[in-house]
Structures are given as structure tokens and as C-alpha cells.
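Deliverable D2.4 — example input (C-alpha cells):
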């Protein structure tokens, strides 16, 4: 009887450990979002993790972003466009499923603000800037709110007046 309890306890422990090992470490993924387009190894690692484990709309949004970042890490022009187009579609689907997500709007704003205009994906910059100005302060997770605010402040996307509203 004691052996059976021990075996059950061990089985539960290992099941719990394996389940926890599949959770995404969103803190790192969020923090490194600003350099994903520059660092191929980091981009590939996060993309693989997100492809395997992304469940929420925000996780799928970051998966889409890292997918688009992969366009910077290939020399093949067809692969570049493929990565970009599929990532764009994924991001728009994530936003469609969760239109009130501050974080998804932040992801799209950052991508649209910085990509070349010939890609034709700049149509939501002003809308997303306005949305973030009106809603960032409502975000419940202070660490995510601070991360977004500090990035946007340093990115010079907002005027000083807009930053005051954004940072309230």
C-alpha cells in the first residue's frame, strides 16, 4: 500500500512538472520583443516556443510578431514575404479575436510603425496610437504596462503631450 501511494505521488509530481515545463515564459518574450528582429537565435527560439504552446490571443500575437521578425533573418525574398504575410494574417486574426487587447494593439503599432511602407501594412498606426493612449493606463499588470510605456517613450512615436496621457 505504501509503495502504491509513493508511486502515485511520484506520478502526480512528474505530471505536474511536465505540465509546468510547457508554460510560456511571457516575461522574457515580452522583454525581448524589441530585439527579436535583430537576434536570429532568440527569434527562432521564441518562435518555436510560441508555435508549440501559444494559447491566448496575446501569446498568438507575439507568435505572429516573431514570425514576421523571421523575415529579417532569411536572405530568400520569397521566404521573407511568406514569413511576413503569414505573420500579418496571424496578428490580424489575434486582434480580431480580442479587439480590446492593449498588448495586441501595442504589437501591431510597433510592427507597423517600423516596417517599410512598400509592404502596405501601415494602416492602423494612428488608430493604435490613439487606442493605447486611451487604454494603456487600464492595464492591470503593472509590469507589462511599464514595459509598454517605457518602450513607446523611447521609440519616439509619441509627442510629449501624448506621452503625458499615455503614462497616466
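Example output (designed residues):
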Amino acid at each position: 500500500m505504501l509503495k502504491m501511494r509513493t508511486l502515485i505521488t511520484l506520478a502526480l509530481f512528474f505530471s505536474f512538472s511536465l505540465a509546468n515545463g510547457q508554460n510560456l515564459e511571457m516575461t522574457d518574450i515580452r522583454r525581448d520583443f524589441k530585439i527579436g528582429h535583430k537576434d536570429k537565435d532568440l527569434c527562432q527560439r521564441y518562435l518555436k516556443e510560441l508555435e508549440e504552446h501559444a494559447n491566448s490571443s496575446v501569446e498568438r500575437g507575439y507568435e505572429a510578431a516573431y514570425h514576421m521578425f523571421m523575415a529579417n533573418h532569411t536572405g530568400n525574398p520569397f521566404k521573407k514575404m511568406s514569413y511576413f504575410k503569414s505573420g500579418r494574417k496571424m496578428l490580424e486574426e489575434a486582434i480580431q479575436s480580442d479587439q480590446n487587447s492593449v498588448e495586441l494593439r501595442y504589437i501591431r503599432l510597433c510592427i507597423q510603425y517600423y516596417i517599410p511602407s512598400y509592404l502596405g501594412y501601415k494602416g492602423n498606426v494612428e488608430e493604435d496610437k490613439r487606442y493605447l493612449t486611451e487604454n494603456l493606463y487600464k492595464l492591470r499588470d503593472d509590469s507589462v504596462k511599464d514595459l509598454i510605456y517605457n518602450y513607446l517613450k523611447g521609440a519616439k512615436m509619441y509627442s510629449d503631450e501624448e506621452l503625458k496621457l499615455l503614462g497616466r
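Residues 77-97 form the longest helix (21 residues).
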